[in-house]
Amino acid sequence: MASITPQPFRNLLVPLDGSTLAEAAVPVAEALALRLGAKVTLVHVLEEKAPATVHGEPHLMDASEAKAYIQRVADRLTAAGVEVMSHVHEAPEGDVPRSIVSHSEELSQDLVVLCTHGSGGVRSFLYGTIAQQVLLRGTRPVLLVPPAWDGPQAAFHPSLVLVPLDREHAYQASLSAALTMAVAFTAELRLVAVVPTLETLTGPGAATGTLLPGTTRAILDLTERDTASYLAELAAQCTAHGVTVRTEVLRGGAVPELLDVAERQGAGMLVMATHGRAGLDAFLAGSTGQRLSAKAGVPTLLVKAP
């Protein structure tokens, strides 16, 4: 088992489109920068054939207007003690996601912080052009921040970081990022895995369970014990870095069980691995990660697995 060490996040890229909605990412970036000692780079990409409004607000139509806006946001961060750089991509782009990815690489950014646009929350954002393409084309981790629809954005200070895991997918990428967050915010790290029951099996496993229920139930019980041991090994590595780690193996359907534990334990952040498949049709196991992040309602850090 490879060793787990915190992943450094020293440079944070925050793309803004000029809307109040997109600025939901700013206080999260501020909190991260102060805790991690990181620098924030604000970027706005002028859009080719841009609509007159974005999220019900006037669209930034020219470079001078965009620079003034970005500077106002930068001034707020500077006043909070954050080191800030800003950049306006003045040549109108027909492919905004590509430009964001290019900036993240050219400016050597470690993390992209984006607001989840749209009333559909993370689900609609994941399938929207910008998020889908930034995740699919880029190599940097992406932190999706849901907007506060009913008032000001809450302060970002997670006391519990939830990391859904399984034994079939790369864990190190997400655990290293989660460990960084737990150390920075003195948060508890919760490593969680879900083993299905006979009744919640899907795919080929469901057919096997119907034909051989006793054998399948015994295999699932054995998997539960093995998974508990697996999580304990990972927890031991994380504990060595001075964080409090708890593990839990749940039984049932992955999404409802993980949503329940996230709500029950008051998770302030989810950290998950993505394999960057076309259309983001699968990360974690199948569509579990997509459906989980769509409903969780807390910042979700997606880390591309190697």
State the gist of this model.
With 306 residues, the protein is an alpha/beta fold. 41% of the residues lie in helices and 22% in strands. The strands form two sheets. It has a ten-stranded mixed β-sheet with strand order 5-2-1-6-7-12-11-8-9-10, sandwiched between helices. A two-stranded antiparallel sheet has the order 3-4.
List the helices and strands and how they pair.
Blueprint: E1 11-15, H1 25-36, E2 39-47, E3 53-54, E4 57-58, H2 63-79, E5 84-93, H3 96-106, E6 111-115, H4 121-127, H5 129-137, E7 142-145, E8 160-164, H6 172-185, E9 188-195, H7 204-211, H8 213-239, E10 245-251, H9 254-265, E11 269-274, H10 288-296, E12 300-304
Parallel strand pairs: 1-2, 1-6, 2-5, 6-7, 8-9, 8-11, 9-10, 11-12
Antiparallel strand pairs: 3-4, 7-12
Helix pairs in contact: 3-5, 4-10, 7-8, 9-10
Outline the structure in words:
The chain has helices spanning 25-36, 63-79, 96-106, 121-127, 129-137, 172-185, 204-211, 213-239, 254-265, 288-296; strands spanning 11-15, 39-47, 53-54, 57-58, 84-93, 111-115, 142-145, 160-164, 188-195, 245-251, 269-274, 300-304. The protein has 2 domains: 11-145, Rossmann fold; 160-304, Rossmann fold. The strands form 2 sheets. It has a 10-stranded mixed β-sheet with strand order 5-2-1-6-7-12-11-8-9-10, with helices on both faces. It has a two-stranded antiparallel ribbon with strand order 3-4. Helix 7 (204-211) packs across helix 8 (213-239). The protein has 10 helices and 12 strands. With 306 residues, it is an alpha/beta fold. The model is unreliable at 118-129 and 277-286 (pLDDT under 50).
